[in-house]
Amino acid sequence: MGDARWPRIAGLRVVGSWPETGYSRPPRPVSRGARLTGMGAALLVMGGIVAIVVALASQLHAPQPKASAAGTVATAGHGPSLQRSLPVSMSIPAIGVNSTLLHLGLNADGSVQVPSLVTSASKAAWYKYSATPGQIGASVIEGHVDSTHGPAVFFRLGALNPGDLINVRLADGVTAVFKVTGVRQYTKSDFPAKEIYGTTDFAALRLITCGGVFDYATGHYLSSTVVFASLVSSRPA
After folding, report:
1. I need a surface site. Which of 51, 119, 158, 203 has the fewest CB within 10 A?
2. Mean of the pLDDT values across residues 184-194?
3. Res. 180 pLDDT band, cuts 50 70 90
4. How far is it, in rounded angstroms, from Cα 107 to Cα 226?
5. Residues 81-94: what's their mean pLDDT?
6. Model confidence over 92-106: pLDDT tens digits?
7. How many CA atoms lie within 13 A of 203 on its CB side?
């Protein structure tokens, strides 16, 4: 999310331990009961290994934007617009997203706040220092791609395509309808913050989440997925 630092929010970490290298002591005679106990322990270890393999194999990976979905970041002309009204919730039918919207600002270090991974991974957040959805300007909504428990609110954001619709319900009861114009991925080191958070002469919407490769060394994703959309219509209260 822009210059904000994203905490570790993906993947299953598996920690295994093995004996130190070297030779073990010669075995001593054991009773039948001890043998059965040893066999049970071995089965438990094997069962644990199988569980780990199954868990690793079943990990889900968020879809990444296709090259054909890059589209455009702006629309020609000014288009429709709405009066200022705070966003309440959003839906994205194409990827099954339905979320109430948090209102978040900046951290003490100037980075953009993100929803709590513990309590709000399933919720998206409107950046409260951006335009409200439907106003002339860029309105920014952010969300996690996943959490330690699995997919989060924007897990499938990278699967969107130009033409897909995004609905944002506002406090005045109006629903702003946006059409996706492009879906792109940027490395965190080359994130175009001015282009995404900057002013526009039309009612723009940007959706942001993490994407690309997860760097286990730093505990961060290396890229961001950004959806560009513009207001096309609205539904009255």
Report:
1. 119
2. 94
3. very high
4. 21
5. 98
6. 999 999 999 999 999
7. 19
Q: What angle do CA 120, 123, 125 make, to 5 degrees?
A: 105
What pLDDT, on a 0 to 100 scale, did the predictor assign at position 55?
Answer: 37
Rounded Cα distance, 135 and 111, in Å: 24
Q: Which CATH superfamily is domain 67-235 in?
A: Sortase (2.40.260.10)
Interatomic CA distance for residues 208 and 112, integer angstroms: 12
208 contact partners, CB below 8 Å, separation of at least 6: 1, 2, 140, 141, 142, 143, 196, 224, 225, 226, 227
The rounded distance, in Å, linking the Cα atoms of 159 and 149 is 21
Q: Cα–Cα distance between 91 and 167 in angstroms, integer? A: 5
Type of residue numbered 204: A
> Span 77-96, mean pLDDT?
95
Assess whether pLDDT exceeds 50 at residue 19.
no
Give the distance between the most distant pair of CA atoms in the chain.
87
Annotate 98-156 with DSSP letters as a single string: EEEEEEE-B-TTSPBP---TTT-TT-EEEETTSPPTTSSEEEEEE--SEETTEE-TTTT
Looking at the predicted structure, is the pLDDT value of residue 53 above 90?
no
Tell me the Cα Rg of the chain: 24
Phi, psi of 90 (to 5 degrees): -145, 155
